[in-house]
Amino acid sequence: MRDLINDIFVSNFDNPILSQLEDQASFELSNLLQYGDRLAFTTDSYVIDPLFFPGGNIGTLAVNGTINDLAVSGAKPLYLTCSVILEEGLSISNLRKVAQSMQVAAQNAGVQIVTGDTKVVDKGTADKLFINTAGIGVIPTGINISAHNIQPGDVVIVNGELGNHGTAILIARGELALETNIESDCQPLHSLVEKILRVCPQVRAMRDATRGGLATVLNEFAVSSDVGIVIQEQSLPIQKKVRGVCEILGLDPLYLANEGKLLVTVPQDYAEKVILEMQSHPAGRDSCIIGHVTNSHPGIVLLKTIFGSERIVDMLVGSQLPRIC
Amino acid sequence: MRDLINDIFVSNFDNPILSQLEDQASFELSNLLQYGDRLAFTTDSYVIDPLFFPGGNIGTLAVNGTINDLAVSGAKPLYLTCSVILEEGLSISNLRKVAQSMQVAAQNAGVQIVTGDTKVVDKGTADKLFINTAGIGVIPTGINISAHNIQPGDVVIVNGELGNHGTAILIARGELALETNIESDCQPLHSLVEKILRVCPQVRAMRDATRGGLATVLNEFAVSSDVGIVIQEQSLPIQKKVRGVCEILGLDPLYLANEGKLLVTVPQDYAEKVILEMQSHPAGRDSCIIGHVTNSHPGIVLLKTIFGSERIVDMLVGSQLPRIC
Amino acid sequence: MKYIDEFREPQKAKALIQEITKLSDSYPLKIMEICGGHTHSIFKYGIGGILPHNIELIHGPGCPVCVIPKGRLDDAIYISQQPNVILATFGDPIRVPSSTVSLLQAKANGSDIRIVYSPLDSLKIAKDNPDKQVVFFVLGFETTGPSTAFTILQAATENIRNFSVFSNHVLVIPALQFLLKNPDFKIDGFIGPGHVSIVIGTKPYEFITQKYHKPIVISGFEPLDILQSIWMLIRQLAESRCEVENQYNRLVKPEGNKVSLKVMHQVFEVREKFEWRGLGEICNSGLKIRPEYAQFDAEVKFNLPNAKVADYKTCKCGEILKGVLKPWECKVFGTACTPENPIGACMVSSEGACAAYYKYGHFAKNFPKNTVEKSIVTA
Amino acid sequence: MKYIDEFREPQKAKALIQEITKLSDSYPLKIMEICGGHTHSIFKYGIGGILPHNIELIHGPGCPVCVIPKGRLDDAIYISQQPNVILATFGDPIRVPSSTVSLLQAKANGSDIRIVYSPLDSLKIAKDNPDKQVVFFVLGFETTGPSTAFTILQAATENIRNFSVFSNHVLVIPALQFLLKNPDFKIDGFIGPGHVSIVIGTKPYEFITQKYHKPIVISGFEPLDILQSIWMLIRQLAESRCEVENQYNRLVKPEGNKVSLKVMHQVFEVREKFEWRGLGEICNSGLKIRPEYAQFDAEVKFNLPNAKVADYKTCKCGEILKGVLKPWECKVFGTACTPENPIGACMVSSEGACAAYYKYGHFAKNFPKNTVEKSIVTA
Amino acid sequence: MCLGVPGRITEIIDPNKKLAIVDVSGVKRQVNIACIVDDQNPPESCVGNWVLIHVGFAMNRIDEREAAETLKLLEEIIIAQGTMSNYE
Amino acid sequence: MCLGVPGRITEIIDPNKKLAIVDVSGVKRQVNIACIVDDQNPPESCVGNWVLIHVGFAMNRIDEREAAETLKLLEEIIIAQGTMSNYE
Ligand code: SF4
Ligand code: SF4
Ligand SMILES: [Mg+2]
Ligand SMILES: [Mg+2]
Ligand SMILES: [Mg+2]
Ligand SMILES: [Mg+2]
Ligand SMILES: [Mg+2]
Ligand SMILES: [Mg+2]
Ligand SMILES: [Mg+2]
Ligand SMILES: [Mg+2]
Ligand SMILES: [Mg+2]
Ligand SMILES: [Mg+2]
Question: Which BP terms does GO give this entry (chains A, B) (predicted)?
Answer without folding.
Answer: protein maturation
